[in-house]
Structures are given as C-alpha cells and as structure tokens.
C-alpha cells in the first residue's frame, strides 16, 4: 500500500509539474505584463510627484525672497521718511537737498555693479539676442529718470509742509494710482477685492483734506499755514500718482523693452535712472540758489554738524535699499504688489511720528489710517487668492498622469 501511494503521489506530482510547465509561458507573460504596467504606473506617478515637490520648493523659495524684500521695503521706507522729517524739524530748509538724498545714494551700488556686470552681460547677450537698441535704452533711462526726479521733489515738498503722519497716510493713495495705471499699461484685471481696496484708499486720502481745518482749534494755524497745508497735500498726492506711474512704467519696460527681468537688467535700471535723476536734482539745487545756504544750514543744525551729515548719509543709503527692494518685488510679483507692500508702512510711520515728533492723532486721521489698512489688506488678500489659484492650476497639470493611446482606445 505504501508503494502504491508513493506511485500515485509521484504521478500526481508529475501531473502537476506537467500542467505547470504548460502554463509557464502564459504565467510569465502575465507577470511580465504586470511588471511593465507597474513600471509605467511608477513612471507616470513618480514624475508628477517630483515635479510637484520641485514646484512647491520653488514656490516656498520665491515667497522667502518676497518676504525679505517686503521687510526691507517696510523698514527702509519708514526709517527714511522719519529721517527726512527730522532733517526739516532740526533746521534743514533745502527741498532740493531733501530730493537729492532720495536719489544720490546710488554710487554705493557701483562696486558690486561693476564686479558682477561682465558675467551677467555675457549671459544676457546669449539668452536674449534681441536686445533693445542704445537709443531706445537711452530714451527709457532719461524719461524714467526725469519722472523719478520730479516725483522725489514733490515728495520732498510734501514732507516739508505736512506733518509726517498726514504725509504718510496720503502716500497710501499711490496704491490706487498704481492700480489705475497698471490697468491701462499692464492689463491689470479689477476684481472686487482690488476695487474695494481702491475705494477705501481713495476715501482715506480724501478725509485728510479736512484734517487741517479740524485741528485748527487746538493749533495756532494761520492762513499761511493753511496754504502750506494745501500745497503740501497737492504735492504729496501728485507724488503718489507719479510713483504709481513710475512703478507701472518700470514693469512695462521690463516686459516689452528689456524682455527680461534679470539681476543685470534691474541693476541697469536702478543705476542709469538714478544717475539721470541725480543730475537733474543737482542742476535744480544750483539753479534755485539753495546751494549757497547749505553751509549755514549745516552750522545751524540743532543736533550738530556730525548729526547733519549722518542724517543725510543714512537717509540716502536707506532710500537706495528701498529702491532695490521695490525692484525685487516688481520682479517677483508685480508693481502693484510692490506698491501695496510699501503702503503697509502706513500704520507704522504715524505711530512712530506720534512718539518721536509728537504728532496729534485726531479722529479723522485715525479713521483715515483704519481705512488705509483695510484697503491694503484687501489687496494683499487678492494677491494671495491669485497665487493659490495659479499654484493649484500648475499642480493639476503636473499631477495629471499620461494615459497610453492603447488604454484610451480600449
């Protein structure tokens, strides 16, 4: 019986092995097909996952750069405005000198510019063969430089006549002007949040027209001071409009003329436009005769000669850092976003002005500040929505697996 069972068992085993050999080819084909399918699926999903991770890293790194530029814009603009007001408070009288310190600090960038220029120049020529002509570049630099000189002079006049807190709140209107110019020059789309921001910022600046009359009871305001207030208000609004136009034109030049926003292009724009604007300001300083009074101005400065020189030096340096940061935000996002970040300093400067210059925060001025902050937050939220939407769109295109044509036909 044991032998019989062994024979039967061996027959069953041989039968099983025989059946396995007959299906071996088919099973191996199925296995190979499964491996190919798995490899295809792995390629289809591994690639999009890597692309998604790369896109997220680029997004995080981009927002890190935006955060650095934004912090520099807020700190440098607030400090420069306060130092500019301190110059007038302690004995400074030259409006052209107040303009010159906003523009004349660009030579501090020349060493770094000259070191990096040859490398970037060869790169730009190879990557962008269709460079604008020399005459076109000269026209762009001269025109924008002239606009910049006029704009800075209007800012200087406004800061001379107005309290620094009022001046800062009026400057928030530059965001509305920038949006208006960007609509015509850069095809900006008006969304409900942007429209809400523009309306609030316009109301915020308009309320300040009544600020001087409301504070006339507790201040020795005369008809002359009211005239100066009106002049300062008009000049500051004009400067805000000019600044918004300057940012929009700069963004338009980067896209249409320069056809690129490399570091070299940005540095060229800063250096050459600042050079033109500085030359115009120096001519105005000599032509106005204010140059003759600078020596007496320095000698009679309340904080001393050293403080006078340090004030002008630090103001010029801060404005240059502010300009670089603004250009960085224009490259990363847009001119309107750069303007919105600079307008975030609206609540900072009035508070510091109350502390250091004892400016009075009346009811109208407080309401104006609240409206300005609300309008700025409204725009920044719209920017957040735009970035989130674009990120989701990119991820949906990247993560979509490719389907073979055979699978589609099946």
UniProtKB/TrEMBL annotation:
Q: Which residues cross the membrane?
A: 63-84, 96-115, 136-161, 167-186, 193-210, 230-249, 269-288, 308-330, 337-357, 363-381
Keywords annotated in UniProt: Membrane, Transmembrane, Transmembrane helix, Transport
Instruction: List the GO terms this entry assigns under cellular component, sorted alphabetically.
Output: membrane
User: Where, subcellularly, is it found?
Assistant: Membrane
Molecular function via GO:
purine nucleobase transmembrane transporter activity; purine nucleoside transmembrane transporter activity
Superkingdom of source: Eukaryota
What does the record say about its membrane topology? Multi-pass membrane protein
Tell me the Pfam families matching this sequence: PUNUT
InterPro entries per UniProt: PUP_plant
**Which residues lie in coiled coils?**
none
Q: So what family is this one in?
A: Belongs to the purine permeases (TC 2.A.7.14) family.
Report the PANTHER family cross-referenced here: OS09G0467300 PROTEIN-RELATED, PURINE PERMEASE 21-RELATED
Report the protein name in the record.
Probable purine permease
This protein's species is Vigna radiata var. radiata
């Amino acid at each position: 019986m044991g032998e019989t069972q062994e024979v039967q068992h061996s027959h069953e085993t041989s039968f099983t092995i025989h059946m396995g050999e007959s299906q071996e080819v088919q099973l191996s084909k199925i296995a190979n097909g499964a491996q190919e399918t798995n490899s295809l699926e792995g390629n289809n999903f591994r690639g999009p996952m890597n692309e998604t991770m790369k896109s997220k890293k680029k997004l995080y790194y981009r927002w890190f750069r935006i955060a650095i530029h934004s912090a520099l814009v807020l700190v440098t603009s607030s400090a420069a405005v306060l130092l500019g007001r301190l110059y007038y408070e302690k004995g400074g009288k030259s409006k052209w000198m107040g303009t010159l310190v906003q523009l004349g600090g660009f030579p501090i960038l020349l060493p770094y510019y000259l070191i990096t220029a040859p490398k970037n120049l060869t790169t730009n020529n190879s990557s962008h063969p269709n460079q604008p002509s020399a005459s076109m570049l000269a026209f762009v630099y001269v025109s924008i430089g002239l606009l910049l000189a006029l704009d800075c002079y209007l800012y200087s006049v406004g800061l001379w006549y107005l309290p620094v807190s009022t001046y800062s709140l009026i400057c928030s209107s530059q965001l509305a002007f920038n949006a208006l110019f960007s609509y015509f020059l850069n095809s900006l789309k008006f969304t409900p949040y942007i429209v809400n921001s523009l309306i609030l910022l316009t109301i915020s600046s308009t309320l300040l027209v009544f600020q001087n009359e409301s504070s006339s009871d507790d201040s020795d305001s005369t008809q002359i001071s009211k005239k100066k207030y009106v002049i300062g208000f008009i000049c500051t609004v004009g400067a805000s409009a000019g600044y918004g136009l300057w940012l929009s034109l700069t963004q338009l030049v980067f896209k249409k003329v320069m056809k690129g926003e490399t570091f070299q292009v940005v540095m060229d724009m800063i250096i050459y436009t600042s050079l033109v604007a500085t030359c115009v300001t120096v001519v105005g300083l000599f032509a106005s005769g204010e140059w003759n009074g600078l020596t007496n101005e320095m000698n009679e400065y309340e904080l001393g000669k050293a403080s006078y020189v340090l004030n002008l030096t630090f103001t010029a340096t801060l404005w240059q850092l502010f300009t670089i940061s603004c250009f960085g935000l224009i490259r990363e996002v847009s001119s309107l976003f750069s303007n919105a970040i600079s307008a975030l300093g609206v609540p900072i400067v009035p508070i510091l002005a109350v502390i250091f210059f004892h400016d009075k925060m009346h009811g109208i001025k407080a309401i104006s500040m609240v409206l300005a902050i609300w309008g700025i937050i409204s725009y920044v939220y719209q920017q957040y929505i735009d970035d989130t939407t674009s990120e989701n769109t990119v991820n949906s295109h990247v993560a979509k697996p490719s389907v073979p044509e055979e699978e589609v036909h099946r």
